[in-house]
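We both want to read discrete structure tokens more fluently, so let's practise on a single case. Would you write everything just below, so we can both look at the same thing?
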Amino acid sequence: MDFRTIYEQGKTDVHTAFELFDKLEAVELESLVGTWKGKEFYTGHPLDGVLKKLNWYGKAFHDAENVDPLLFRGLNGNIFAVDPVPFMDLRKLVKAPGGKARMRMMEYRGKVSGTMIYDNLPIHDHFRKVNDSMLLGVMDWKGAKQAYFFVLEKVE
């Protein structure tokens, strides 16, 4: 099965998601720069559906040293960055000044590709290119039993 078919269906299993991820091209850091709208890619992970309920917007890559790893849309429609530490600790959304992550080229599952590294959490988001305006991402969280998948679409 191809990415588009599974994406339109809205869910798959982890094994199939990794098969898709492994077939995709690596991503260069320069192509990550910009704002990306996120969408969950359901695989049965405990976080499936959580970000959508919280109005997750996506991510913003400013440069190699400054990435807003979590953007949310407020009730007034404004987009704001959130500090990922309280969020991942299941406390609450805390607005952040931004730049709570950075990006590097890293090897993951046999390919060197663009990766977002959280500043204060043991989490790496690895990216592969679906096309010039869409990425498949995998959140690799140290100690997690299962990887979390998501899709990013470039905001023009």
